[in-house]
Design a protein that fits this description.
With 513 residues, this protein is α/β, with parallel strands linked by helices. It has three domains: 192 residues, Rossmann fold (3-Layer(aba) Sandwich), CATH 3.40.50; 168 residues, ANL, N-terminal domain (Rossmann fold, 3-Layer(aba) Sandwich), CATH 3.40.50; 98 residues, GMP Synthetase, Chain A, domain 3 (2-Layer Sandwich), CATH 3.30.300. 33% of the residues lie in helices and 25% in strands. It has 16 helices and 26 strands. The protein has a five-stranded mixed sheet with strand order 11-12-13-14-15, with helices on both faces. Strand 12, helix 12 and strand 13 form a beta-alpha-beta unit. The radius of gyration is 23 Å and the shape is globular.
């Protein structure tokens, strides 16, 4: 069941593939590719170069790059140098970048020449010196580059054997505001490769993955970076998601596996229906995580393409996956599957922490070898989240008699209207089925007499929406107290890199009007 051979230091995995498949392409993007043999040599040289330029074990290295092979090499080399990797979204706002660089106390930033001036400005007041290494076009002209480091000595990389040390600071999605830095280990991350992706999804060296996932996010870092490496698979890294480009690439028949988030699969299906595309080449499996997958979308996608779409539930604090649906056996559409082997889960009363009976809704808590080591520099938040070995997710869930879990919402997102509980996801799953709705989100808004009421935000097809038709559609499936009090048409729903709705931004937009 468990593929424990996938759990090893990064240097050991690279050496294994250098011996067994040196000429196989490991990763490629729109600009270049790298074989496993080249990857082993280049990351060793870059790691030595980092050490020669002052990086010491435990130092924090920020990777502030777009998706691509450079990102992969920077990450693996940093790990081989004994550093702690701090991924930062290339599309992050200045305040977000500054906060992460300062909070993690990053001493080295790997970025592109066009962002060098920005990083210099944001780190000008840092207590310690912050060095820059450049990647991409014109990197050598800008200063010290990854390519320059890769030309050096391949002997002498630190290559720490301790896979239980903190190796990543991954900042949470920030769906409720300021992000927290989650401390994760290589063992915890690769446990998911060994217990989930390999045995459940059959990820192996035979796979060719097409990944549009943002590499700074824990889901992509786990699956698209570390698990692809551990399995010895090949991967095409897209700089960003484009439904048309994904469909065109999958039509070539080159790819076997496609990971995404629910919104990606929604747009893929919509584009395919518009263009008459019915197949996804030789893709054997699509994987969805990062946000709740509506059962209706799962069914429609599989019916249209004839390709299996497996949904799972994961969070950064558990090195991604907690539960997953399996390729074999029964599935319960709308559920996020059963616990990944090696993990224990409970559904408890959020107040008393008593275990609840099957079918009752409560807080999901989880325990296992993939748990975070805590929040960076936040002992109080760590103590609140990690109690007696259990991580308290803050997510509401329920289970059926066979152990299949369904996520029903967030404790803090629950809308209490006149004493009656409303889960935003329940309204969203109904609203998205309306033919004029492309995307939607629900937030709770204070009300003078009812306490809170639901407001619906909608992205409409061709910017046209008959609101009365939408409300009538909702009344067919929802109780009267769940019908949105107001409906707003917006150009987009603010989401994190994993597809989670940033509801606080919608609330802020309401306050600004």
């Amino acid at each position: 069941m468990l593929h424990t051979g996938l759990i090893a230091p990064v240097a050991e995995l690279l050496e294994r593939h250098r011996r067994e498949r040196p000429d196989k392409v490991a990763y490629w993007d729109a600009v270049r590719s790298v074989t496993y043999g080249q990857l082993a040599r280049r990351t060793a040289s870059i790691a030595v170069g980092m050490s020669n330029n002052g990086v010491r074990e435990g130092d924090r290295i920020a990777i502030y790059l777009p998706n691509g092979v450079d990102w992969i090499e920077a990450c693996l080399a940093g790990l081989r140098a004994g550093a702690v990797i701090v991924p930062i979204s290339y599309d992050a706002a200045e305040a977000e970048i500054a906060y992460r660089l300062s909070d993690a106390d990053c001493g080295l930033v790997i970025t592109t020449p066009v962002r060098g001036e920005l990083v210099g400005k944001l780190t000008a007041g840092s207590a310690g010196a912050v060095s820059l290494v450049f990647a991409g076009a014109a990197a050598r002209q800008a200063g010290l580059s990854l390519d320059e480091l890769a030309q050096g000595n391949t002997e002498g990389a630190l290559d720490p054997a301790d896979i239980d040390r903190s190796s990543f600071i991954i900042y949470t999605s920030g769906t409720t505001g300021r992000a927290k830095g989650v401390l994760l280990s290589v063992r915890g991350m690769l446990w998911i490769a060994a217990a989930c992706w390999a045995p459940i999804c059959d990820l192996s060296d035979k796979d060719v993955v097409l990944s549009p996932l943002p590499l700074f996010h824990s889901y992509a870092l786990n699956l698209s970076v570390l698990s692809v490496l551990a399995a010895g698979a090949s991967e095409h890294i897209m700089e960003r998601f484009s439904p048309q480009q994904v469909l065109e690439l999958l039509q070539t028949g080159k790819y076997t596996l496609f990971p995404g988030v629910p919104t990606m699969f929604h747009y893929l299906l919509q584009r395919a229906q518009e263009s008459g595309i019915r197949r996804l080449g030789n893709t054997r499996l699509c994987i969805s995580a990062g946000a709740i997958m509506p059962a209706s979308l799962n069914r429609s996608f599989e019916a249209h393409f004839g390709t299996l779409l497996l949904d799972g539930y994961g969070i950064t604090e558990t090195s991604t996956m907690v539960t997953m649906n399996w390729m074999r056996g029964a599935r319960v559409m709308g559920s996020c599957g059963i616990p990944v082997p090696g993990l224990a889960v409970r559904i408890v009363d959020p107040i008393t922490l008593e275990d609840l009976p099957i079918g009752a809704e409560g807080e999901l808590i989880v325990r296992g070898p993939n748990l975070m080591q805590g929040y960076h520099n936040k002992p109080a938040e760590t103590a609140s989240a990690l109690r007696k070995g259990w991580y308290h997710t803050g997510d509401l869930a329920k289970s059926d008699p066979n152990g299949y879990l369904t996520i029903t919402g967030r404790i803090k997102e629950l809308i209490i209207r006149g004493g009656q509980n409303i889960a935003p996801a329940e309204i969203e799953e109904v609203a998205i089925l309306h033919p004029e709705v492309i995307d939607c989100a629900v937030v709770g808004v204070p009300h003078a007499t009812l306490g809170e009421v639901p407001y619906l935000f909608v992205v409409a097809g061709k910017n046209e929406l008959d609101i009365e038709s939408l409300l009538a559609h909702c009344r067919l499936s929802l109780s009267s107290y769940k019908i949105p009090e107001a409906t707003h048409i917006v150009s987009e729903i603010p989401r994190t890199g994993s597809g989670k709705i940033m509801r606080f931004k919608l609330v802020e937009a309401l306050k600004g009007n």
